[in-house]
Amino acid sequence: MYGLQLQSQPFFNLRKTLQLQSQPSSLPFISTCSTSVSNPTFRALSSIQEFPPNAVRRKSDPQWRGGFSLGVDLGLSRTGLALSKGFSVRPLTVLKLRGQKLELQLLEIAENEEADEFIIGLPKSWDGKETPQSNKVRSIAGRLAVRAAERGWRVYLQDEHGTSTEASDRMINLGIGKSARQKSSDAYAAVILLERYFAMSGKDIEIVLPKQMDLQEKLRRGSTPDIDFYPEEFVG
User: Does residue 19 register a pLDDT over 50?
Assistant: First the structure.
């Protein structure tokens, strides 16, 4: 199995921020830090169309199906995971792995759970500034993005400030004992992370893109559609 199961149920980090327009039907905007593009606005609009997160797809198309999301709360020694299928978010597991073993396990879990995107918590301070831990998270996210892109899966960064406190409060409200809270707090923090991501419809997240153009092309094509959600695509 993945690890602690909960009973309750070379790379380039391209920093791009999603900013949704006020109207639900308007096209989301993704900013770019590049100054060498002659028409950055056109490129920004093209990019969000090419690599849209599931939260944006859900908001722009009420009939959209599929697209499971894996929330990842990275810690120094423990990594909490949560899973979103449809409109439900649940704690999944806590991993006690680091380095390449962690990255490979994340990919295996995503495949088993049919997730096509990772929402990774980015540590920030109360005023929105990044912390010393932020660079470590970005480094892991960058390596994971390369492996994920090979499968057509996307990696995004979401501000995780306050998720641990919210997770602790929720577990207390649910009546979860102290011992159980200590074991599952990271997974519940990942739940809060995913709920925030969907509540904000993907606003202010960052996509992590591999530098290799062939991998970016795989991201544009995406992963193979799930027959449970798109049976018509598998009909001869």
Answer: no
